[in-house]
Design brief:
The protein is of the alpha+beta class and 495 residues long. It has 4 domains: 103 residues, Phosphorylase Kinase, domain 1; 132 residues, Orthogonal Bundle (Transferase(Phosphotransferase), domain 1); 119 residues, Phosphorylase Kinase, domain 1 (2-Layer Sandwich); 104 residues, Transferase(Phosphotransferase), domain 1 (Orthogonal Bundle). It has a 7-stranded antiparallel sheet, sandwiched between helices. It has a 6-stranded antiparallel sheet with strand order 1-2-3-4-6-5, covered by helices on one side. Strand 15 and strand 16 form a beta hairpin. The N and C termini lie far apart (65 Å).
Length: 495
């Protein structure tokens, strides 16, 4: 096929895909065997074979192909000229009316630092494994900055480990100030802000300690901690805002359909596996283990190809209830939105997989939320042995309490109120040597833009949480002492 045909190939072209390309030796066939990244009608990146050699192919089509081609090639050139390790560009070309192609050496068995981070993110905060990944990334970033370059799209997926060497990839994101001269402090702070904003905010207290790894490789500038913290906060706000837009539109992360008779949003990597459930969620609820039924919601644990999942159906109780709900975003959508927000912020919650709204001429009816299943105990059950009663066993272990401290600190930091913080909405999840508390039932959750609004909502959350245990119990008193208070609120405020 011709390269230009990729403009109409969609998101999942049939593989292997054979494209006629040219280099200095003449015309030859590129066989694309797998796809790693797709931007439909614009960019197709994957493992391929060219003249009997494995390569990583970047195929660019559409109206902006020439621009993207030039940016990629220029970025690769800048990295190579400054002696920074990047996969070799083996062949490239640009043809009017067709598109562009860049073929790189293929790093077999290479793993990104994102993969490395995912392997250690469940370890205790700033464990040796976590510190090693961050140190490796910061050292590579510092060396790039020392050469006057920065990666505009800086994230751990653009740093690849291969045969004991770290490679910088994605030349399209490489920018230069004065090649060969250290990057200005302004650009250093901006780029480090992008890097740290993708790490858990719980690491922020260790920012100064982590920066040592950067300064050892590039000590050109003194980096004001407060300025860097402000930049990190700014980037995080932007990233969360960007995600909130993506959950409602068809993109690389989410498959979204909206129409007069329904809405469906699903994580793209889950779409194929969830298809039977998406087609008929009611039948799975009928066959599943129902935890709650009737009234405003029905909740069931279901099995799909041996995988346990949870479906929550938000019911329409009667005509009056429908009149109150049809014009508003469904509670399923609210849970989908906030679940994705928490997941992105690193606050534990069952991963939201899909949301479905049934509609009639855009008027909303019943809706469904599909999430991963949590097998742990809720906090009421887990803390029951520790109530101040004759049969009680003292106070909960410090691991449980520390995890609760982290959860509440994160909610305060992000100005998020739950809206119904009863004990049955917190579940314990074992994680490494400790664990974490996971939040469920998010349809009343809210992220507050104003401090005063959050303070009032947080006070209600805190008071509701403490009412899970008798006021005179040692457990109640301990939690009351440990849980953070927001200035200007009364801890005992009732909501």
């Amino acid at each position: 096929m011709r390269l230009s045909a990729l403009r109409d190939a969609g998101r999942t072209p049939a593989l292997p895909l054979r494209v006629e390309l040219e280099d200095g030796a003449g015309s030859a066939e590129l066989r694309l065997d797998s796809l790693l990244r797709v931007l439909p009608g614009q960019r197709y990146v994957g493992a391929a074979n060219w003249r009997g050699r494995p390569v990583l192919a970047k195929l660019l089509v559409g109206g902006r192909a020439a621009r993207h081609f030039q940016r990629e090639r220029e970025g690769v050139r800048l990295l190579a000229e400054q002696g920074l390790t990047t996969p070799a560009l083996l062949a490239d070309g640009l043809k009017d009316g067709e598109g562009g192609w860049l073929l790189f050496e293929f790093l077999d068995d290479a793993r990104s630092l994102w993969d490395a981070w995912r392997a250690v993110e469940g370890e205790p905060l700033l464990s040796d494994g976590q510190a090693a990944v961050i140190a490796e990334a910061l050292t590579a970033i510092a060396r790039m900055h020392a050469k006057g370059l920065w990666q505009e799209d800086l994230h751990l997926d653009n740093l690849l480990r291969h045969a004991g060497t770290l490679y910088l990839i994605d030349g399209a994101g490489i920018r230069a100030e004065t090649p060969g001269q250290p990057l200005s402090r302004k650009h250093v702070l901006e780029n480090l802000g992008v890097f740290f904003a993708q790490l858990p905010a719980s690491l922020d207290p260790y920012l100064e300690e982590l920066l040592i790894h950067y300064l050892l490789a590039n000590g050109e500038h003194a980096l004001p901690l407060e300025a860097l913290q402000k930049e990190i906060a700014r980037v995080r706000r932007w990233r969360v805002g960007d995600l909130m837009k993506k959950i409602a539109r068809d993109c690389s992360l989410f498959s979204v359909f909206k129409g007069p008779f329904g809405l469906r949003a699903v994580r793209r990597e889950e779409e194929e596996g969830l298809q039977p459930l998406l087609d008929d969620p009611d039948s799975y609820i009928d066959r599943g283990h129902v935890y709650k039924t009737g009234g405003a919601a029905t909740v069931a644990r279901v099995e799909l190809n041996g995988r346990p999942l949870v479906i929550k159906r938000y019911n329409i109780k009667n005509l009056l209830h429908w009149f109150k709900r049809f014009w508003r975003p469904s509670r399923a959508w609210a849970s989908w939105r906030e679940g994705n927000r928490l997941d992105f912020l690193g606050i534990a919650t069952p991963k939201p997989l899909a949301v479905i709204e049934r509609r009639w001429l855009w008027l909303r009816g019943p809706a469904f939320l599909i999430t991963d299943y949590l097998a742990g105990q809720d906090i009421i059950a887990r803390f029951k042995p520790y109530l101040d009663q004759p049969e009680g066993g003292g106070l909960p272990p410090e691991t449980d309490l520390a995890a609760l401290d982290r959860l509440f600190a994160a909610l305060v930091r992000e100005r998020i109120s739950h809206g119904d913080l009863k004990g049955h909405n917190l579940f314990w999840q074992e994680q490494g040597e400790g664990g974490q508390w996971s939040l469920i039932d998010l349809d009343a959750m809210q992220r507050h833009s104003r401090e005063a609004s959050f303070a009032r909502a947080y006070a209600r959350d805190r008071a509701r949480f403490l009412r899970n245990w008798p006021e005179g119990s040692a457990l109640h008193q301990l939690l009351d002492e440990r849980l953070p208070r927001v200035p200007g609120t009364r801890p005992d405020e009732r909501g």
